[in-house]
C-alpha cells in the first residue's frame, strides 16, 4: 500500500519539481505528469485554479475532464484534496481520479487544506517541496510569473519563518516577475459559512496590500467568490467536489463582488501583465468572467 501511494502521488509531486524553486527530495519516481515544454510565447499561457476536491469523487472526475479539456500548462489546487488526510485509501482514490492530468503532462501545484493534515500528505504529496518534508510552503516561477503557495497550518504571524519567507517572495515577485500569484486554503475574505479567516486578514492581507500580487486564490468555503479588497484581487474557488455551501455570510459582500454556489474551475489566461479569468461549471456554463491588470 505505501509503495503504491508513493508511486502514484509522486507522479503529481514530480510535476512540481519541474518548475519549483525548491530542493528536490533524495528519492523521486519519474512518472508521467512532468510539465510540458514552455511555449515560445512566454508572456502568454493558461493555467487552471480549483480546490476542495474531497467527498464526492464522481464530481471530481467530471472536474478533471473539464480541466483536461482546457489544455492548461498546470493546475493550482487550493486545498482539501481528500476528506481525511490520514486515510491512505483516499489518497489512492485521489491519485486514480487525477491520473488524466499526469497522462496529459499537466503539472499540479497544491496547497495544504485542513482536511489534508496527516502524515500521508507529508510523505506522498509535499516531500519534493523540501527534502525532509517539514515545510509545506513553496514558490515557483513560470514564464517570468511568480507563484507563491502558503501553508496556514504552520505559523504565519509576523516574526515567523513563513511570514518572513512570504515577504521575501513577494519582494522577489515585485522586482523580477511580470505578475505574482498567491495560493492558500483559508481566505481572508469569504461569504461562505466559514467566513473570513481572521488571522489571514490580520497578518497576510496587509502584505498583499503592500506588494500587490495580481491575484490570490483560496478555497475552504465550497463555492465561488470574487472580491477586491484594498486593491487586492481575491478568488475563493472551492467547487472541486466537496459538498457545496451557500453564501451564508453574504452580508459581508461589498459592491462588485460575485458569488455562486456551484461546482466550477477557473480558467486563467495570462497575457503579459493581464489575467483573464473564466469561471466554468462541469456542464460548460460560464458563470463569471473578469480581467485583472495593473
Automatic annotation (TrEMBL):
Keywords: Signal. GO terms for molecular function: acid phosphatase activity. InterPro entries: Calcineurin-like_PHP (IPR004843), Metallo-depent_PP-like (IPR029052), PAPs-like (IPR039331). SUPFAM superfamilies: Metallo-dependent phosphatases. It comes from the Bacteria. This is Uncharacterized protein. It comes from Capsulimonas corticalis.
Amino acid at each position: 500500500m505505501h509503495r503504491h501511494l508513493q508511486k502514484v502521488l509522486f507522479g503529481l509531486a514530480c510535476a512540481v519539481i519541474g518548475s519549483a524553486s525548491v530542493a528536490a527530495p533524495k528519492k523521486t519516481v519519474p512518472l508521467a505528469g512532468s510539465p510540458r515544454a514552455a511555449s515560445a510565447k512566454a508572456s502568454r499561457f493558461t493555467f487552471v485554479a480549483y480546490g476542495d476536491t474531497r467527498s464526492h469523487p464522481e464530481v471530481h472526475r467530471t472536474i478533471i475532464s473539464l480541466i483536461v479539456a482546457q489544455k492548461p500548462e498546470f493546475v493550482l489546487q487550493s486545498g482539501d484534496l481528500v476528506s481525511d488526510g490520514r486515510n491512505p485509501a483516499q489518497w489512492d482514490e485521489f491519485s486514480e481520479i487525477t491520473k488524466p492530468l499526469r497522462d496529459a503532462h499537466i503539472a499540479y501545484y497544491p496547497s495544504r487544506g485542513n482536511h489534508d493534515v496527516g502524515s500521508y500528505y507529508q510523505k506522498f504529496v509535499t516531500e519534493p517541496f523540501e527534502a525532509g518534508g517539514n515545510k509545506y510552503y513553496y514558490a515557483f516561477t513560470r514564464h517570468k510569473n511568480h507563484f507563491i503557495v502558503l501553508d496556514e497550518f504552520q505559523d504565519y504571524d509576523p516574526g515567523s519563518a513563513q511570514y518572513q519567507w512570504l515577504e521575501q517572495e513577494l519582494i522577489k515577485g515585485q522586482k523580477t516577475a511580470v505578475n505574482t500569484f498567491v495560493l492558500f486554503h483559508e481566505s481572508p475574505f469569504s461569504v461562505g459559512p466559514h467566513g473570513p479567516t481572521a488571522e489571514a486578514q490580520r497578518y497576510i492581507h496587509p502584505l498583499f496590500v503592500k506588494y500587490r500580487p495580481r491575484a490570490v486564490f483560496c478555497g475552504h468555503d465550497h463555492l465561488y467568490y470574487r472580491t477586491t479588497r484594498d486593491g487586492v484581487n481575491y478568488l475563493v474557488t472551492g467547487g472541486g467536489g466537496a459538498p457545496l455551501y451557500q453564501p451564508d455570510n453574504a452580508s459581508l459582500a461589498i459592491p462588485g463582488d460575485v458569488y455562486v454556489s456551484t461546482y466550477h474551475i477557473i480558467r486563467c489566461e495570462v497575457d503579459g501583465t493581464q489575467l483573464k479569468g473564466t469561471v466554468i461549471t462541469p456542464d460548460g456554463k460560464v458563470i463569471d468572467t473578469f480581467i485583472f491588470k495593473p
